[in-house]
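Sequence only, no structure available. Ideas?
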Amino acid sequence: MKDFSNLVQMRRSHRKFTDEELTGDEVKLILRAALMSPTSKGQRGWHFIVVDDKTDIEKLSEAKDMGAQFLKGAPLAIVVLGNPSENDCWVEDASIAAISMQYQAEDLGLGSCWIQMRGRGLSDGVSADEVIRGILDIPEDQSVLCVLAVGHKADERKPQNEDRLKWENVHIGKW
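Reply:
I predicted one. Tokens follow.
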């Protein structure tokens, strides 16, 4: 394992993947990170749908007008969901789980990219949530936060640049 400060600096969004499939152990470790992530009141109310069927992944890539087309090239998609009626912190809890999976993917040498779906959709007014619900038979009480594209990196990204950190956005004590 890399030290965490290095892991944070190295994790970048990747939108290009090789055709190599993930192993069962890699997928399990990524999901384990999500299942261990902290949640409000320990509710652990999130759900995850692991999609490796190429046809379904392609359909997911068309769930919104812009920003998801690269998903077609990913060998794995993980849909992150929660139930708004059971947990007023579902967005926060699901977000923590999603980034936990992204850090675990990076630690395994894999690439990932968050694809925002909540509040997004198609120009005809159909929400991404509705599209994804239809593809994956998701119950009505669940809402889609995002889809993570995960795979073996087909591109190189430079680490985060320390010189570009916005320390001026950090306030100590008061604004």
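The beta strands are 47-51, 76-82, 110-116, 143-152.
Hope that gets you unstuck.
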